[in-house]
Amino acid sequence: MACKQRTGSAFGFNAWFREQDVAIEGRAAEFVRVGDEGGHITFRFCPNCGTTVYWNIDRIPGTIAVAAGSFADLSFPPPTVSVYHESRRYPWVEIRTDPLEKRG
């Protein structure tokens, strides 16, 4: 539930990288929360607008997650792996791999 509250959405779309392959620039404020299974998640967010930009999970050392919406480049590659918790899925959310109908 905390991820839904953080994103304001039914789910989050995140890109995961090895920490050594990421360069972070600029200021970030941070907030640490304890996950449902006891791990610590350190969220870094913009100190001006409050948007969560990236985070680390102590149980997945050496990795960094970046909110995909943070990338301005519309050619950002589509995901190759999809992970979600079935027990936390809203019953009206359908996870599928077919392209959605394009409008506008």
Secondary structure elements and pairings:
Layout: H1 2-7, E1 14-18, E2 29-34, E3 40-45, E4 52-57, E5 63-67
Antiparallel strand pairs: 1-5, 2-3, 3-4, 4-5
Describe the structure.
- With 104 residues, the protein is mostly beta strands.
- It has a single domain (2-88), classed as Metal Binding Protein, Guanine Nucleotide Exchange Factor, Chain A, CATH 2.170.150.
- The chain has one helix spanning 2-7, and strands at residues 14-18, 29-34, 40-45, 52-57, 63-67.
- It has a 5-stranded antiparallel β-sheet, with no helix packed on it.
Strand order of the largest sheet: 1-5-4-3-2
Largest sheet: 5 strands, antiparallel
State the separation between the terminal residues, measured CA to CA: 32 Å
Q: What percent of residues adopt helix (DSSP H or I)?
A: under 10%
Please state roughly what percent of the residues sit in beta strands, choosing from under 5%, 5-15%, 15-25%, 25-35%, 35-45% or over 45%.
25-35%
Work out the count of structural domains: 1
CATH overall fold name:
Metal Binding Protein, Guanine Nucleotide Exchange Factor, Chain A
Count the beta strands: 5
Q: Which series of helices and strands comes N to C?
A: HEEEEE
Radius of gyration: 15 Å
**Apparent shape:** globular
* Structural class category: mainly beta
The CATH class turns out to be Mainly Beta
- Number of separate helices: 1
